[in-house]
Amino acid sequence: xxxxxxxxxxxxxxxxxxxxxxxxxxxxxxxxxxxxxxxxxxxxxxxxxxxxxxxxxxxxxxxxxxxxxxxxxxxxxxxxxxxxxxxxxxxxxxxxxxxxxxxxxxxxxxxxxxxxxxxxxxxxxxxxxxxxxxxxxxxxxxxxxxxxxxxxxxxxxxxxxxxxxxxxxxxxxxxxxxxxxxxxxxxxxxxxxxxxxxxxxxxxxxxxxxxxxxxxxxxxxxxxxxxxxxxxxxxxxxxxxxxxxxxxxxxxxxxxxxxxxxxxxxxxxxxxxxxxxxxxxxxxxxxxxxxxxxxxxxxxxxxxxxxxxxxxxxxxxxxxxxxxxxxxxxxxxxxxxxxxxxxxxxxxxxxxxxxxxxxxxxxxxxxxxxxxxxxxxxxxxxxxxxxxxxxxxxxxxxxxxxxxxxxxxxxxxxxxxxxxxxxxxxxxxxxxxxxxxxxxxxxxxxxxxxxxxxxxxxxxxxxxxxxxxxxxxxxxxxx
Length: 479
Known about the structure:
GO biological process, one term: regulation of DNA-templated transcription
Subcellular location: Cytoplasm
Number of domains: 4
Domain Response regulatory: 5-119
Number of helices: 22
Shape: globular
Keywords: Activator, ATP-binding, Cytoplasm, DNA-binding, Nitrogen fixation, Nucleotide-binding, Phosphoprotein, Repressor, Transcription, Transcription regulation, Two-component regulatory system
GO molecular function, one term: ATP binding
Strand content: 5-15%
CATH architecture of the largest domain: 3-Layer(aba) Sandwich
CATH superfamily of the largest domain: P-loop containing nucleotide triphosphate hydrolases
Structural class: alpha/beta
Radius of gyration: 27 Å
Number of strands: 14
């Protein structure tokens, strides 16, 4: 049975009541206050085994109290709550030694689980607060989809763990990587980004590890690689899914041994970098296709972070629009604002190019239109432009099965208007996908069901049953 005294500070009486009920049912003793002064009096007198505090209180900000708590009682876990659900709130909570940050509204079961874990674990270490983060917020948005990203990032700031960032083009993968560097332990070291897709395959090893004079034709002098340039800092390997297999083998050796040799060199070079990898591809699928090393994947995928596409966080669009208009104004463009009806249009758009596409649109609106207020008709005009349909994101989505299926389903649901499709949608969709999949594989294997079953990764009897059930035509070839 759990035990301990929980000190709760929140000026919202409804929140205090809910927390009191939930924590009391879980077996804890609860003391409630609406201000920071009383909370500090309790803590300074030695009361409480854990603190739960809102950030904004009538008399003092929790971030002003937290350093004093950490100095007086560094073993006391503090859980910070906030309705100001920004990235910087999560970062400040982490920097100042909070055990956990919870954006409001939060799940009570999750809260009680965190409380139990905090009381059971060894007391957390105190974080370095010598250099607090400033207010140059790298992320905009308070949607639930982004809150989990903020919380994961906050936990990672004081570590050197390798991170794998996965997300569609334009979701901000490099922004996340830079935040991990700028607010982390290696902020005083260099941040080096290298895009694997932009380097010719025969030059990737030289680009990463450097080369010696005369090591290949055109190598007229020694050149340092990105690992050497990033020493003591962070190396972002962007578009890691485009790295050729030979370079993957060398990268794996570096991650395992902590050293490398330059192209044409013989002396091992020690490396001290934090690796962050990013991709918009499904690496598991590349592994199955023999295009990516599974052992390298597990080395890189220590902490996975998935960035949601903009269509999964449309509630952030108004904040993003205001932010991009503000940035444009700071660059000398006229001040603009957007009507509510225009924002509604943006929320309904699919944004194949994600945040990057939205930013480009806002910059065009600020630069090309004389109106101070952007109307819904202007948004219709922008969204009808060919440029919007031929963005980088949509070009990628056109070849993406998940995106194609999502577009198909969106159109399918649209055919029913306000009604819903008939029941049984799951099995109907699976059948529509299974038929062409099995048909194409059988054609590729020239009707050889043993090879087809192996390629699909299913039992031969299962494949035969699918062929019968789906009425797939098997055409055997003697080629």
